[in-house]
Amino acid sequence: ETLQLDVRDSDSVAAARTRVTEGRVDVLVCNAGRGLLGPLEAHSADTVASVLDVNVVGLVRTLQAFLPDMKRRGSGRVLVTGSVGGLMGLPFNDVYCASKFAIEGLCESLAILLPPFGVHLSIIECGPVHTAFLEKLEGGP
């Protein structure tokens, strides 16, 4: 069964956690992401905060909800969608790259800490692929 949730909403994350029917989550896929394109000075503080809320804080909310049970059980797999934008800066993607760099640091730290608990985390550093993501980018020239 696949559960969907809104990473911006702690209640949505908690509700998804309570809907787990087997009593456990074996694989957690963290794929929420928001893009923002354009020069840094063109973005409002609210827009920047929204991108960081989805890309970074939303990931943290989700991990905080599901990792404790995986650690208690001694098993689980976490897959996080990162980006090459977390490995190198990309022009006019300042905020997006900042959020993906944060995810890199978070995931690298957790990847070291989780294996003794039987939990394995992988970050998938996607490059340019043909998806609807580019059509949903906010901002622009």
Automatic annotation (TrEMBL):
What's a single GO CC term here? Answer: cytosol
Domain of life assignment:
Eukaryota
Per the database entry, which stretches of residues form a coiled coil? Answer: none
Listed Pfam families: adh_short
The answer on whether this UniProt entry bears the keyword Oxidoreductase reads: yes
Matching InterPro entries: NAD(P)-bd_dom_sf (IPR036291), Sc_DH/Rdtase_CS (IPR020904), SDR_fam (IPR002347)
Q: Which UniProt keywords apply?
A: Oxidoreductase
GO molecular function terms noted in the UniProt entry: estradiol 17-beta-dehydrogenase [NAD(P)+] activity
* GO biological process, any: estrogen biosynthetic process
Q: Which family does it belong to?
A: Belongs to the short-chain dehydrogenases/reductases (SDR) family.
Descriptive protein name: 17-beta-hydroxysteroid dehydrogenase type 1
Q: Which organism is it from?
A: Oryctolagus cuniculus
Its lineage opens with: Eukaryota, Metazoa, Chordata, Craniata, Vertebrata
